[in-house]
Design brief:
With about 110 residues, the chain is mainly α. The protein has a single domain, classed as Alpha-Beta Barrel (TIM Barrel), CATH 3.20.20. About 50% of the residues lie in helices and about 5% in strands. It has a two-stranded parallel sheet. It is globular.
Length: about 110
């Protein structure tokens, strides 16, 4: 939440999330950036945190989500999509394919 960002608790939370990546059965939903950011779209202050999580888990275990109900006023639905598809330059086109839907479909065996 924004309180975590204000109190500078995000790095420690990211450290904990990254530590869990060593377990192959653990995956992560990368959806809270609007709520965690102290900035408006495109939430540049959380980019490095997202990159650390992504680098730890890889594209097959990272899932995009809106988190819309927890931070409705912070971004539109479209901005939540373009944040991942246009603003996170560390994601390749293949990474985006995985994160934006393919990974969760495979995880749930829906493909």
């Amino acid at each position: 939440t924004a309180a975590m960002a204000k109190d500078n608790l995000i790095p420690a939370a990211v450290d904990q999330a990254v530590a869990l990546a060593k377990y192959p059965n653990v995956s992560i939903k990368m959806s809270a950036s609007p709520a965690l950011s102290l900035e408006s779209y495109p939430f540049r202050d959380v980019t490095e945190h997202l990159r650390r999580v992504f680098d730890a888990y890889g594209p097959q275990r990272c899932y995009w989500g809106t988190d819309l109900t927890n931070s409705f006023a912070k971004a539109t639905y479209r901005q939540r999509i373009t944040h991942f598809t246009e603003e996170l330059s560390f994601l390749t086109e293949s990474d985006k394919d995985w994160v934006m839907g393919r990974a969760i479909l495979e995880r749930l065996k829906w493909t």
